[in-house]
Each structure stands twice: as structure tokens, then as C-alpha cells.
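Problem 12. The chain below contains 463 residues. Write out its predicted structure in C-alpha cell notation.
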Amino acid sequence: MTEYKNTIRTPVSYTGIGLHTGEISTITFKPARKDEGIVFIRIDLPDKPEIPADIDHVVDISRGTTIGVKDATVATIEHVLAAIKGLSIDNIRIEIDGPEAPVADGSAIVFLNLLKKAGLVQQDAERVYFEFDEPISYSAPEENVDIVIVPSNELKVTFMIDYKHPYLGTQYTWLPDIKHFEKDFAAARTFCFINEVLELKEKGLIKGGSLDNALVIADPNMTEEELQHIQEIFGYHEKVTISPEGILNNHPLHYYNEFVRHKVVDLIGDIALLGVPIKGHILAARSGHKTNVELVKKLRQMQLTQELKKQYQKDNSKDVIFDANAIMRIIPHRYPFLLVDKIIDFKPNESIVGIKNVTINEPFFQGHFPGHPIMPGVLIIEGMAQTGGIMLLNQMDDPSKYVAYFASIDNVKFRKPVMPGDTLRYEMRVISLKPNLSKMRGEAFVGHEKVAEGDFMAILQKK
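Solution.
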């Protein structure tokens, strides 16, 4: 069944304090065009810069998710994004007159209720999902995080946290579909431990933080003197207390496992940065903003690769990104000087892997050398350059109008001869990528053995 994109019907606003900056700001949600996506606008800055809420504009994840364009940034947007995606809103403009979204009560429910009040409008644009045909995984051993996404007909989330803390410990939850977000997850508040709060407060990093916009988990056996110290730091007139669940100031929990449910809120907000909704079952253990964003980066590369395959290639083979026909639609080289047969891996703006099957029928073997055929080293370098050129030309809206000229090739080394029957694998990795000048590191392999390497500098010019 065809699904259509949504925006909101009327503008709505909310004014509140930013968790980290302590600045009061007003955030206003407005309707957007059918393919605009989620865009923040800093209306307090000259020219009112617009910042797309996508993974390409994430500039900081140290304390929440921050997006930016040049000097214009908006911080702590994850709860806002979670509310938007929790209502399946695709396009929305968000005006804000400060550097940080209001924290509200530390959950997404304030923004979700506000957006419901604005009302939803269906748009004349079909919703496109990012789908999975096989499981993918992401691990960060240093963070003790594991995430797996398996194919599903809708978005599902299974989440587990495991804290070595007597008031928290292990919690588990699952989101069967996005329709359950409003009732079962949106009101789950952010949480932290008192030692973290005190450290951040002393460093001036949570100027807007209080015991009312986060669940602050106490240390066991806290003394009256320590509670008095907390009261003084936050400027409370009344005594600070601890609930049976270990929460400062006796805030009742919205859900029995509110802590892990808030982790799902953060995850929903962070995966909104992909720019398209997901159909898949996400199974996450101990993930936070940092690893969520790294996961979205991986998904973004997969998404770009899928889009490229649709653009250039008819065959949707899992093992081939571009076949020979697709390659010839991108670079101008032709027989007998097309020296890459297929692209098997492509991470746009990062790396590319090409394959060349070397056969005895190659025309250069007639003279290099009769009776002892060896592929000329300069042609191995040329094949590497052509592979790198595919990645460079991909930056252009119409690659057929441009050509990649290699300005220099340095530090070239040949390790082993390449002979008929060998399969060459070109691996090109970006060092720097700019519109008019790019640097790459290239290596060529036969099997596991390196046969050549070099550093490449290239420019793109119109034909």
C-alpha cells in the first residue's frame, strides 16, 4: 500500500531553557514543502541560516546531538527529532532563536503533544523507506555496544541496558512499531547519575540542568551533607530527598523501566538523521548518542550505495555496485583502455574497490613481453586511477560532462608482477576530497598480496 509524506497544518511554538547552555529559546514548528525534510532555521542569526537535520550536518555528539552549517549550530535536538518521527512527520521547518533546543521535562512528550495540536497534513509525495534484505551489525567494543538490524516490514526496536549500579542494573524494552511510540515511550525522561551531574555542573556544562528536567540517580548511602551540597548547587529552598527507586527529589517514574525506554527515544531521534524512515528491526545493547550516530553513518553509506546502483545499474546483484556498463556511464574510458571491470564496494567520499580480470587476450600482452606476458606497471596505476576517478566523478550531478585529470602520482611502488589469469583488486581511499582537488591513497592486490601502491592527486574539469 502506498504511503504518503506528512507535514503539520499550522505553526506551533514552545519556549524553554536549554540543558547545556542555560539559554532561553523559542522553538517554532512550521509546515514544509513535500520534499524538504527536517530543517532547523536559526532566526536569531544574520541571513537566518538553515541547517538540514541529517547525518551530513552532525558536528558534535559529546553531549547530545548537535547539527551545524559553518558557525550556525543547534544543539540537543534528539528529543525534538524523536517527537517528529514518532508522529511519522516527514517534512517540517523548525525556527529557533538560540543555539540549543529547549530541554522541557527531558522527554519528547512536550514536543509530540505540541505537534499533535498543530495537526498533520498528508502531502502529494510518496514516502520512501530504507529497507534491509539481509542483517547488518555494528559493534563498538570500547563502548561495550552491539547493534544488529534485521529485515522487517516496519520499524521495530529491541533495547537492553546494563548498568553496574544498584538503583538501575539491567533493563529491557521493545517497540513493536512506531504507533506505540506516543503512549509507551515519548514521556520517558533523560537520566544521569549524580556524580556525572555534579561534575558537569561544576564545569558549567549543564547550565540549564535541574532535578526537574532529568531523572538524577543517587549514589547508595548518600549522606545528609551530600544531599545538602546538592541542594545548594541547584539553589533549591527545600530539602533534596531520595525515592525508593534512587531518584533525587522523589520524581515518580512514568514507566517501570523508564530508563531503557528513554534510550529508545534517543535512538528514534538519532536515526531520524538518516533522512528517510527505516523498515527494520533494530536490536541494540547499551547504545548511546555516539554509537547511534556511527550506526546512522554506516546506514547512510549503504543508502548512498543503493541510490547509485539504481541510478547507474540495471542489475541489482549484491556483489556488484557497478558493472562494466555502469562504469562506462560514469567515466569516458573505452576499449582498449578501460582497465576496471566492476566496482564491488563503494563508500561515497571515503573509499572504492574495483576489480580487473586480467586475461591473456589483453592487447598489451602481445608486446609486453612475447613469451613472458606481464601486465605493464603503468597500466596497473592507470586502473587504480580509473577506479578513483569513478568516486570523484560521482560528486557531479552529470558525470558525463566532466573528466578526472590526475595531477600527480607519488610514492609509487611495484611489489610483484601481474600475469594472465590474475584478478586485480584496486583499493582507493580518500585522503582529502574537495570540489577541485582531491587526494587518494591507492593499493592494488592479487589475492592477499599487494602488487602496487601509490598516492594520487586529481582535479575535475569540464570536458
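Discussion. The radius of gyration is 27 Å. Students who got a different answer should revisit the alignment rule from Section 12.3.
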